[in-house]
Amino acid sequence: MNVKKKKHPKFYVPNFGTKSRKGVKERWRKQRGIDNKKRIKKRFMGAEPNIGHGNKKELRGVKINGKVNLLVRNKKEFQAALENPSADIVFAHSMSKKLRGEMVKIAEGKKVRITNFKTMIK
Asked: What are the pLDDT digits (tens) for 27-63?
């Protein structure tokens, strides 16, 4: 099942692409300068995030495949995540490699997707 979310423009910091601003990361920050054209909503400066760009509540956090990522920190959370068919599992950074290995074997038997296991197992 593919989830159909709203499309919205990319929200860039003004002058993002200029040579003098190569260190500016591709992220959004609210403009606060008194003469800033983006703050006074000039159309040529691009879109700004607002309420109309949001998705429905039931679609927030849902990936394109229709599933939600569940963060797993221990065995108890892992067992609960296995019972949820509409979830993909993400291992927490603090989990040991040994525990991750055990959980991957269980998940393969249950046909559950773990999104970040390739980086963990060698």
From this structure: 788 888 898 898 999 998 888 888 888 899 989 889 8
Q: Torsion angle of alpha carbons 68, 74, 75, 76, nearest 10°?
A: -70
> 45 is in which domain, residue-wise?
8-15+28-54
Q: Are both 42 and 66 inside the same structural domain? A: no
Tokens 């927030």 -> residue:
60
| Whole-prediction pTM | 0.64
| Residues 113, 117, 119: CA angle, nearest 5 degrees | 150
Residues 6 or more apart whose Cβ sits within 8 Å of residue 88: 63, 65, 67, 68, 69, 70, 112, 113, 114, 115
Amino acid letter for position 21: R
